[in-house]
Automatic annotation (TrEMBL):
Subcellular locations according to the entry: Membrane
Reactions performed catalytically: xylitol + NADP(+) = L-xylulose + NADPH + H(+)
Protein name: L-xylulose reductase
Entry keywords, A to Z: Acetylation, Carbohydrate metabolism, Glucose metabolism, Membrane, Methylation, NADP, Oxidoreductase, Xylose metabolism
Gene Ontology MF terms: carbonyl reductase (NADPH) activity; identical protein binding; L-xylulose reductase (NADPH) activity; oxidoreductase activity, acting on NAD(P)H, quinone or similar compound as acceptor
Cellular component GO terms held in the UniProt record: brush border; cytoplasmic microtubule; cytosol; membrane; microvillus
Species in which this protein is naturally found: Bison bison bison
Gene, per the UniProt record: DCXR
Family listed: Belongs to the short-chain dehydrogenases/reductases (SDR) family.
Function: Catalyzes the NADPH-dependent reduction of several pentoses, tetroses, trioses, alpha-dicarbonyl compounds and L-xylulose. Participates in the uronate cycle of glucose metabolism. May play a role in the water absorption and cellular osmoregulation in the proximal renal tubules by producing xylitol, an osmolyte, thereby preventing osmolytic stress from occurring in the renal tubules.
Length: 244
């Protein structure tokens, strides 16, 4: 299926590793013009070697002023993938202010800020656009030691709906994807313990974790005009986890 993304400007946050890096590579292969954002310059350098022509911005999205300066002049952006996120796993009674602040700054506040920058540019140009927020199944279920992470993703799902309501009249669609555990290198390491993995897999009707391309394919569909009537949705990529 031709998703007709060639020539579109796409900004991807959290582009240095994992899902974000795979999104950039898929968009580059589809002919899109990609701006990759990461806080790690070495990851961006290696990404450009793999995908010549990708533009890069190195900035810590937890820093509001630095983000405004780094991304304020980027554009014209047509499509945005808010993928950057952090996860600090702590029991509820041991949650720290530092973990709370960093989690909400990156997982929620940065989504608001980057989306504002892109949406204002689209509205000023009178151009339609699409924003995809990378959420999680953790937005809708309580997971041990994930109180702050689950909270940020629950807030992100609700933010997605409000953005869709307010930006829809400007022809800007906003959706979220909600993956289960994804087999990135980090995911493989975190779920390598068979006993830990079994406890989660037993809750997934399809009996397996997601591969990176399962998430990437869903995001590309939501970015494309093939999903032109879809906005305000949270789309599970979870093998049925949220259906149980």
């Amino acid at each position: 299926m031709d998703l007709r993304l060639a020539g579109r400007w796409v900004l991807v946050t959290g582009a240095g590793k994992g899902i974000g890096r795979s999104i950039v590579k898929a968009l580059h292969a589809a002919g899109a013009r990609v701006v990759a954002v990461s806080r790690t310059q070495a990851d961006l350098d290696s990404l450009v070697r793999e995908c010549p022509g990708v533009e890069t911005v190195c900035v810590d999205l937890a820093d509001w002023e630095a983000t405004e300066q780094a991304l304020g002049g980027v554009g014209p952006v047509d499509l945005l993938v808010n993928n950057a996120a952090v996860a600090f796993l702590q029991p509820f009674l041991e949650v720290t202010k530092e973990a709370y602040d960093m989690s909400f700054n990156v997982n929620l506040r940065a989504v608001i800020q980057v989306s504002q920058i892109v949406a204002r540019g689209l509205i000023a140009r009178g151009a339609p656009g699409v924003i995809v927020n990378v959420s999680s199944q953790a937005s809708q279920r309580g997971l041990t030691n994930h109180s702050v992470y689950c909270s940020t993703k629950g807030a992100l799902d609700t933010l997605t709906k409000v953005m869709a309501v307010e930006l829809g009249p400007h022809k800007i669609r906003v959706n979220a994807v909600n993956p289960t555990v994804v087999m990135t290198p980090m995911g493989q390491a975190a779920w390598s313990d068979p006993q830990k993995a079994k406890a989660m897999l037993d809750r997934i009707p399809l009996g397996r974790f997601a591969e990176v391309e399962n998430v990437v394919d869903t995001i590309l569909f939501l970015l494309s005009d093939r999903s032109s009537m879809t906005t305000g949705s949270t789309v599970p990529v979870d093998g049925g986890f949220l259906a149980t």
